[in-house]
Amino acid sequence: MMQCHLPETPPETGRMSVTLRRWIIERSLASRVGHIGSALSIVEIMAALWGRILRSPASGLADRDRFVLAKGHAALALYAAMHYQGLLDEETFNSFCADGSLLGVHPERGLPGVEAATGSLGQGLSVACGLAYALKRRRSPARVFVVLSDAECNEGQVWEAASFAAHHALDNLAAVIDLNGMQAMGQTRAILNMAPMADRWRAFGWHASDVDGHDEAALGAALDDSTGRGQPVVLVAHTVLGKGVSFMENQLEWHYRNLTPELADQALEELGSRS
Ligand SMILES: [Mg+2]
User: Shortest CA distance to 147 belongs to which of 107, 199, 110?
Assistant: First the structure.
């Protein structure tokens, strides 16, 4: 049976995403920490999850929905979404990557809403499987959502976890693949081609579908429709590295590169004009 958790009046599509992009640029500049392109490519995924889908994610309640950012290097997008939802105050959000801050380059346990320390690619899905399995065993209505990078699917551990999830019919588990076609050292299809991605997941027993990863409403609808199928669900979200900033889009250097004040101004000007 399908469940419906979407609010009767969905949030204004796009507004949260534009704000998240602006904050990612501002905090990246202030902290001089990169991974900007990777954070920008998952903005709509974060907006759909944190703005529409997740129930009580940072509450500590036993039946809260769980979220795991397997591609932990995009943590700034997660922190921005939590800040937007009022789950991180201004001072904490602005402490990103400062000495002693809970907001590191990668998510850390200790910050409410972060279920696992991630960033060692390939491990997040296994953690999500464990959470989903435990919740299912005690008949919790909570769901588990995990966001992976496309290159992360090169890791063998991902497919061991995928097999586990299908074997145990973890229909409370939904994965989103951020298919931006890029990884740290080049194009994913040139380094280790995983296409056709959705077919691979189907072969491992998952319900897989392709979705526009920058269509927040489509992502929200697909995620809302992800339970009750008797099998885990994966969305292959087609995205663009550096989405929203013209000089970053599909440019590999923005996996790591830091902003200058001039480039940050240019990015913010573009984002402002697109809102
Ligand atoms: Mg990628």
Answer: 107
Question: In a 10 Å sphere around its CB, with 0-12 CB exposed, 13-18 middle and 19+ buried, how is residue 61 labelled?
Answer: exposed
> What is the mean pLDDT of the segment spanning 124-152?
97
CA of 149 to the centre of ligand 1 (A): 5
203 pLDDT tier (thresholds 50, 70, 90): very high
Distance CA 130, CA 196 (A): 27
CA distance 144 to 135: 9
Q: Which helix (H) or strand (E) holds 22?
A: helix 15-31
Vertex 213 angle, CA 208 and 215, to 5°: 115
- pTM attached to this predicted model: 0.94
Residue 42 CA to ligand 1 center (angstroms) comes to 10
**pLDDT tens by residue, 13-24:** 689 999 999 999
